[in-house]
Specification:
The protein is mostly helical and about 70 residues long. It contains four helices and two strands; from the N terminus they run H-E-H-H-E-H. Strands 1-2 form a two-stranded antiparallel ribbon. Helix 2 crosses helix 3. The longest helix is centred in the C-terminal third of the chain and has 11 residues.
Length: about 70
């Protein structure tokens, strides 16, 4: 796969992996679940989201949720 580089020389793949806010689809991929499950977790109050036209999820909140699910 070809990696695109910006004018500053940073790879878009690196920026994508380090972006702090994710969409609901990206959050679902990060959690290995469906976007519907991610939304359900928000409605139940188990996961925080920045709501707007496109919901955004902070990677730190996703990591906290993962840690809370460990048994």
């Amino acid at each position: 796969a070809q990696v695109k580089r910006s004018a500053s020389g940073n790879s878009s793949l690196f920026q994508e992996r380090t972006r702090r806010l994710l969409t609901s689809v990206e959050a679902a991929e990060y959690l290995n679940t469906s976007p519907w499950t991610v939304r359900r977790l928000v409605y139940r109050g188990e996961l925080k989201a920045i709501r707007g036209k496109i919901w955004k999820f902070d990677r730190k909140d996703l990591d906290r949720w993962i840690e809370g699910e460990k048994r």
